[in-house]
Amino acid sequence: MLNLARIYDENQPDGYRVLVDRIWPRGMSKVRAKLDLWEKNVAPSTELRKWFGHDPQKFAEFKERYTAELNASGAASALFDKIKDQPNVLLLYAAKDVENNNAVVLQEILNGMNKNK
């Protein structure tokens, strides 16, 4: 099971906790985050993140560019190898928009890999 949650949310599903942002979430202590893994390599590049700027109108193109970055780097495959044996995984992100962020795209990619394993 692969779930998503905002790292700031109080009620989060249980699971192996993976932060998928390149930048540490503002105001979040490492103790409070309770991470099992911080996987910076699966986060969008700084250039792509700045270009996107969390603009929902750019999300479709962001998704294409981000997917291309992940395919070129192999970062999603590497993460999949790290988490594939975990029964429950929680991808954590800091973005306020719960529908238009990198974790949503990454979840879709990882779920596709899971179906093909």
UniProtKB/TrEMBL annotation:
Superkingdom of this protein's organism: Bacteria
InterPro entries: YeaO-like
One Pfam family matching this protein: DUF488-N3i
Protein's recorded name: Uroporphyrin-III C-methyltransferase
Source organism of the structure: Paucilactobacillus suebicus DSM 5007 = KCTC 3549
Highest classification ranks of the organism: Bacteria, Bacillati, Bacillota, Bacilli, Lactobacillales
